[in-house]
Design goal:
The complex is a heterodimer of chains A (153) and B (302).
Chain A: H1 2-11, E1 16-22, H2 27-33, E2 43-51, E3 55-63, H3 69-75, E4 83-88, E5 91-97, E6 103-105, E7 108-109, E8 125-130, E9 135-138, E10 144-146, E11 151-152
Antiparallel strand pairs in A: 1-3, 1-4, 2-3, 4-5, 6-8, 7-11, 8-9, 9-10
Chain B: H1 14-29, E1 40-45, H2 51-62, E2 66-70, H3 84-92, E3 97-102, H4 107-114, E4 119-124, H5 130-144, E5 151-155, H6 162-171, E6 177-181, H7 190-198, E7 203-206, E8 218-221, H8 232-241, E9 257-259, H9 280-298
Parallel strand pairs in B: 1-2, 1-3, 3-4, 5-6, 5-8, 6-7, 8-9
Helix pairs in contact in B: 1-5, 1-9, 2-9, 3-4, 5-6, 5-9
């Protein structure tokens, strides 16, 4: 099984991006974050695949699409170990890992129900204060939102 | 500091904070002036306050300025569903400076980013109350002659008390030794302790206040709120364990002073009030001078 998957994930698309090593439970989140639910080229995804490193994993393949670094770094919030493989003409043209950005703008909801961002129309902004055990400090109310109570917009 | 909003104490550098205190001293010597006679200050209190609102309004009035505003949101368009954005953009047209208290956390930062006139945060929920911190610093400076190398004891609700959090953070610039007295369930949060650790300063934690009093230069008392406890018996027990009496402050240092942001309930017995070491009402008066200084600096008049 693993042989087949390996082959599929790197060679099935001619041009595009493969996002690998996504935690199984985060695949749909990543699809929403990258707005792939309204994308018009081919998108393939898989979840609960076997992974030597993580037990199970998910992966997404997107044809004819190369993402900007800031788009990909958003993914790091839910898939901190994701790898990004760009395919050009059936070959791997680059392989990199995502990085958690220093600022997170417009994608995460502040955990504090009494925060102004949950009451007024305002773009949510956070500073990343801790990358490993993800902690985001709200620019407005200064409270910390952790990965466990993170809600995406 | 001209045109600079004050939302969080960290918006002002140590030097800027000291500058406010220096100018406050000037206003204390000469509190009645006419420098604000051509200015209108908006005082927007979306929730009730006694000391903060009245001391701001007193500060403006003693400098000859005009105050517009409200002391509760009930009598405004907020009740009709107006957004904070629209309220601020409207009132900015009528005033040179906005002082705002709002129960929503982050509302002052939000207002400062959309308002064409500077904003002074007079408290945004449990988040920040920087003018209280400045007047606390001023009170410490006045009573101790310096802000450096002091032993400052904080007593009461150190977990939820925003005045405690901001003052601890501000004092980290002055080589303070912290003595933190609280019930176990109301200890200072680690996010605040982080600032003490970053500066390699010393702090001690206690549950009993008596042993701390002889060591302290400043005893900063706070109110313990009933709503923090799920068990009313626990509240009664704790409330009575942090009750300062005059006989407890007899054997203290000469320069020892008791501070309290007020309002108090029963954590300081009224028999402490006549003591020369009780400083909380003067502390409230200092709020007027500090706010005069702050407004003068932000409006570019000093």
């Amino acid at each position: 099984m693993s042989e087949k998957i390996k082959e599929l994930k790197v060679s099935a698309i001619e041009n595009g991006t493969v996002i690998d090593h996504i935690p199984s439970n985060a695949v749909f989140q990543v699809i929403r974050m990258l707005k792939l639910d309204s994308f018009d080229s081919m998108v393939l995804f898989a979840t609960n695949l076997e992974s030597k490193k993580y037990g199970t994993k998910g992966l997404i393949k997107v044809s004819n699409k190369f993402f900007l670094p800031e788009e990909l770094n958003k993914i790091a919030l839910v898939a901190p170990h994701a790898s990004i493989i760009e395919i050009r003409d059936f070959r791997v043209s680059s392989k990199k890992v995502v990085e958690i950005p220093a600022q997170v703008t417009g994608i995460v909801k502040c955990f504090n129900p009494n925060c102004v961002t949950n009451h007024e129309q305002v773009t949510r902004r956070f500073t990343v204060v801790e990358k490993e055990d993800l902690r985001l400090k709200c620019h407005f109310c200064e409270k910390i939102t952790r990965r466990s109570n993170m809600e995406f917009i | 500091m001209k045109n600079k909003s004050l939302v969080s104490i960290n918006d002002f550098s140590k030097e800027e904070q000291l500058r406010v205190l220096e100018v406050a001293r000037e206003f204390e010597k000469n509190p009645v002036q006419t420098i604000l006679q051509d200015y209108v200050v908006a005082s927007l209190f979306f929730e009730p306050s006694t000391r903060t609102r009245l001391s701001f309004e007193s500060a403006v009035n003693r400098l000859g300025g005009k105050v517009i505003g409200f002391s509760e949101a009930g009598s405004t368009s907020v009740k009709k569903g107006e957004s904070l954005r629209d309220t601020i953009l409207t009132i900015a047209n009528y005033s040179d400076l906005i002082v705002m208290r709002n129960p929503i956390e982050g509302s002052a930062r939000f207002a400062s980013e959309i308002s064409p006139v500077p904003i002074i945060n007079a408290g945004d929920g449990a988040n920040q109350h920087p003018t209280q911190t400045l007047l606390d610093l001023y009170s410490i400076l006045k009573t101790q002659g310096s802000l450096d190398n002091l032993n400052v004891a904080f007593v009461g609700d150190l977990k939820y008390g925003r005045t405690v959090h901001s003052l601890v953070i501000a004092l980290c610039n002055f080589n303070t030794t912290f003595h933190l007295v609280s019930p176990i369930e109301l200890k200072l949060p680690s996010s605040v302790k982080m600032h003490i650790k970053e500066k390699n300063l010393t702090y001690y934690q206690y549950t009993d206040m008596e042993e701390v009093i002889p060591k302290a230069d400043i005893l900063y008392m706070t109110r313990i709120q009933r709503e923090r406890f799920s068990d009313p018996l626990e509240y009664e027990r704790i409330k009575n364990s942090y009750n300062l009496h005059n006989d407890m402050i007899v054997d203290t240092k000469e320069n020892f002073r008791v501070l309290h942001p007020l309002p108090r309930v029963n954590e300081i017995d009224i028999n402490v009030d006549p003591s020369p070491k009780a400083y909380y009402f003067e502390q409230a008066l200092n709020g007027v001078f500090v706010r005069q200084a702050l407004m003068a600096l932000i409006l570019g008049l000093r």
